[in-house]
Specification:
- The complex is a heterotrimer.
- The longest helix of chain A is centred in the middle third of the chain and has 5 residues.
- By secondary structure, chain A is an alpha+beta fold.
- Chain A contains 2 helices and 4 strands; from the N terminus they run E-H-E-E-H-E.
- Chain B has one domain: 3-Layer(aba) Sandwich (Rossmann fold), CATH 3.40.50.
- By secondary structure, chain C is of the alpha/beta class.
- Chain C has 13 helices and 16 strands.
- Chain C has a 6-stranded mixed beta sheet, with helices on both faces. Chain C has a 5-stranded mixed beta sheet with strand order 4-5-7-6-13, sandwiched between helices. Chain C has a two-stranded antiparallel sheet with strand order 1-8.
- The longest helix of chain C has 30 residues.
- The termini of chain C are far apart.
- Classes of the chains: A alpha+beta, B alpha/beta, C alpha/beta.
- Chains in contact: A-B, A-C, B-C.
- The interface between B and C is large, with 44 and 42 residues.
- Bound molecules: thiamine diphosphate and magnesium ion.
- The site of thiamine diphosphate has 17 residues of chain B, from helix 2 and helix 4.
Chain lengths: 89, 292, 398
């Protein structure tokens, strides 16, 4: 992990710096989206606990650096455009 | 990216896969917007999001201890008034159910009674999760936790869930609401309303916990939905503490049997048919009070 | 310098006047004997428009300190007052305030801790928070209470310090006793104490930062060491600020103030209001030709061991009078002094006297007895009984 010099009072001014930590490494299952099926309802975007889904013009895109593979997106997708597949490491 | 899509609770936080708190906090911060100062109790949310030298918070945050999110927020709010910034900056206090129903209850009551312009958000995962799933006054009847374990002589938690929303509303605060993450537009609407309300508001958010409730990580939203569809958790809002005229915002057309909810989680796995009947009867009685 | 105003006021009023002159913005407080007059007076100042601030009438001392932390982290000057059970109740938050390096100031009416419940003077409340990372000052008089409040803000807010500070005034002996004080003019205090601008950060959406991070074993010890370094650094700042205070306001403060110590064989070390009685005892004993001196601790944290080392160097016996006790150990001043002097070669025999607990009066004759017991140890060349209780009520002892 990144080492930083300590600050006075442990005040951390590096807002959003958690992004340095890639939680994608926790994953055992990986989501795959079929953009042909995607209707851009963005339910998956709203439900994702990890902010690992981005909205795009075509639908959505995963940020696999952060996706922990929980599978909520696949389960909640109303048109079954998302499937979970085994993560190949 | 639209303003609403800007993430104020950043990725890289270490909540368990499928944690309902992650979803709730992302959405509530979006509703609050960047001109917000947050306080948080000790608990899962603080631990997963503030490990030095990283932080998931894109807005100012202060964590001081377990029982005092509400009183720290009171200090923040009054200081903002003194600095002449209160009209621009919102204050949102977060607490887990333990930090809200139990150890932080006094501080919360004080904050509500004093009339601070603060939105208090309780993220209710129905136990002390950060310390390893101990029972809380938020734990529902029949749930097995590490300090209310089910066993030969015990059904698990013996007491019903404390009605925290009604208790908070009874402080005659301008706005009180319950919400859960499956009902996203309801949650967003209530969060916005709570934050825009002048004076104290209380938002009770039901957030499933795959680790503590022992359910699959992809079931988080489904369970949150089933809780509403079965009447286990009722979505309502009340203005000016008028709990006699509260507004149930999501009324399932036909309530599903509680069994459908209970069977999704292994914390209820030990319950007998009799036990489930009792829970069903309790829920029926409660829903009658709510008028559906 | 503008003229100072002479007033005859209670100790609580003195600390409140001192606080008011420092223009705090937020005052979260909770009533407790003997400090209640402080929040009452602050409320009055605000109600009468004499102070532009807001009280938070919190529901507990734990919340008082929590609200102080929230307000101070938002970047405003913040103070409170408490005592005894209240200080004990906020104990958890004292460490948070200092760990976040928030220069909150608290006036404490030093009072005994339960059980049995007792509202009178001793120092156990603040002494039991000595490890919480707060600067600690103890007043002998109401004037000192007022002045030390002003000094506490200035020292605590110094960019090299950034630590919270307690100012102790003895329960009833000072809090409720009327004495003459000189009250500095507002403009002079404004000059002495600039507005608070936290250099290390504040809760501000324009520059979002996280306060109260989770500190892993990789970082925690470094944070604590930095905090201790700030406390160490405060030694020099305290001297500098006390010098400047004297220049401006004409009253001298020291971490340790000596009285007739130059040629003294025996030195009595005191803290708080008992010092007045001890001074009188020294005067009387001096008239009888006894070579006795007095040293008064005004600063207990940081513990002024370099100053004490020098004071001790010429003496044969040192009597440490503690108005507190750690059961199974000693009084706190004695423990600290003994610890600090262990590697000093030339040091006097040191004895610990515990007295004045729970409002027990301390008389001139008690200091004479303390002197005599210390002298006896010196003459015997050893300390047989390091800890002795003074002024016990034999009639009620079992
Ligand atoms: C005064 C105090 N008592 C106990 C604890 C230990 N503790 C830390 S977090 C926690 C449980 C938090 O539970 P909850 O508020 O429900 O939040 P969750 O972790 O479930 O989100 C406990 C018991 C503490 N930190 N401080
Ligand atoms: Mg919990």
């Amino acid at each position: 992990m990144t080492k930083v010099k300590i600050t006075v009072g442990a005040i951390n001014k590096d807002a959003g710096s958690s992004r340095r930590y890639k939680t994608g490494g926790w994953r055992t299952m990986k989501p795959e989206v079929d953009l042909e099926k995607c209707v851009s309802c963005f339910k998956c975007f709203d439900y994702c606990p990890d902010g690992a889904i981005k909205k795009t013009d075509e639908g959505i895109e995963y940020d696999l650096d952060y996706c922990k593979g929980c599978g909520i997106c696949a389960k909640e997708c109303p048109v079954e455009a998302i499937v979970m597949v085994k993560e190949e490491k | 990216m639209t303003g609403e899509d800007k993430e104020l609770f950043a990725s890289g936080h270490r909540a368990c896969a499928g944690c309902g708190e992650g979803t709730a906090v992302r959405q509530i911060l979006k509703a609050a917007g960047p001109n917000t100062i947050a306080t948080v109790c000790t608990g899962c949310l603080e631990v997963v999001s503030t490990g030095y030298p990283e932080t998931a918070w894109e807005i100012p945050l202060i964590h001081a201890a377990f029982e005092n999110s509400a009183s720290v927020a009171s200090g923040v709010e009054v200081a903002l008034k003194q600095l002449g910034k209160k009209d621009d900056v919102k204050v949102v206090a977060f607490g887990g159910d333990g930090g809200t129903f139990d150890i932080g209850f006094q501080a919360l009551s004080g904050m509500l009674e004093r009339g601070h312009d603060i939105t208090y958000v309780c993220l209710d995962n129905e136990a002390y999760m950060n310390t390893g799933i101990q029972r809380c006054s938020s734990t529902p009847y029949g749930a097995s936790t590490t300090t209310s374990p089910a066993g030969k002589y015990s059904i698990g938690e013996q007491r019903p869930k404390k009605p925290i929303g009604a208790i908070c509303a009874s402080h005659d605060i301008p706005y009180t609401a319950t919400a859960t993450i499956a009902y996203m537009s309801d949650l967003k609407k209530k969060a916005k309303k709570a934050i825009e309300t002048k004076g104290p508001s209380f938002l009770h958010v039901f957030v499933p916990c795959p680790t503590g409730w022992r359910h699959a990580s992809n079931d988080t939203i489904e369970i949150s939905r089933l809780a509403v569809e079965t009447g286990i958790f009722v979505l309502w809002e009340a203005e000016d503490g008028d709990i006699c005229n509260l507004n149930v915002t999501v009324k399932p057309k036909k309530r599903k049997p509680v069994e459908e909810y209970l069977k999704t989680q292994r914390r209820f796995g030990h319950l007998s048919e009799e036990d489930v009947k009792k829970i069903q009867a309790d829920v029926d009685e409660k829903c009658e009070k709510y008028g559906f | 310098m503008a003229d100072q105003r002479s007033m005859t006021i209670k100790g609580n009023m003195a600390t409140a006047m001192g606080a008011k002159l420092c223009r705090p913005k937020v005052v979260p407080a909770y009533p407790i004997t003997p400090s209640t007059l402080f929040p009452e007076k602050m409320s009055e100042f605000i109600a009468d428009g004499e102070l532009d601030a807001e009280m938070i009438n919190v529901e507990s001392e734990h919340s008082a300190m929590s609200a102080c932390i929230g307000a101070s982290a938002t970047g405003v000057r913040t103070c409170t007052a408490s005592a005894s059970q209240g200080v004990a109740l906020m104990h958890e938050m004292l460490f948070v305030a200092s760990g976040m390096r928030l220069p909150i100031v608290m006036a404490v009416g030093n009072r005994a801790l339960s059980a049995p419940i007792n509202i009178w003077c001793d120092h156990q409340d603040t002494i039991s928070s000595r490890d919480s990372g707060w600067l600690q000052f103890y007043a002998e008089t109401n004037q000192e209470g007022l002045d030390l409040m002003i000094n506490a803000f200035r020292i605590g807010e110094d960019n090299d310090v950034l630590l919270p500070a307690m100012v102790g005034i003895d329960a009833f002996v000072l809090t409720h006793t009327i004495e003459g004080v000189e009250v500095p003019a507002q403009e002079d205090v404004d000059d002495f104490l600039p507005p608070y601008e936290p250099p290390h950060g504040r809760l501000d959406p324009d520059e979002p930062s996280t306060f109260g991070s989770f500190g892993t074993p990789e970082y925690y010890q470094e944070f604590k060491q930095a905090q201790v370094e700030a406390m160490e650094g405060s030694r020099e700042v305290i001297d500098r600020v006390f010098d400047e205070f004297e220049e401006r306001f004409g009253r001298r403060y020291n971490k340790v103030t000596t009285y007739k110590c130059d040629d003294a064989d025996i030195i009595i070390l005191t803290m708080g209001s008992m010092t007045g009685t001890a001074r009188e005892a020294v005067n009387r004993m001096r008239e009888e030709g006894k070579k006795v001196g007095l040293a008064k601790l005004t600063v207990f944290r940081p513990f002024p061991y370099p100053e004490l080392e020098e004071i001790m160097s010429g003496a044969k016996g040192l009597a440490v009078v503690d108005r507190n006790i750690s059961p199974g150990g000693f009084g706190a001043v004695y423990s600290d002094l003994a610890g600090a002097s262990i590697n000093i070669e030339k040091k006097p025999l040191i004895k610990n006297f515990v007295t004045g607990l729970g409002g027990r009066e301390i008389f001139v004759k008690n200091f004479v007895e303390i002197y005599e017991k210390t002298l006896a140890a010196v003459e015997a060349g050893e300390v047989k009984k390091p800890l002795e209780w003074i002024n016990m009520n034999q009639e009620v002892m079992r």
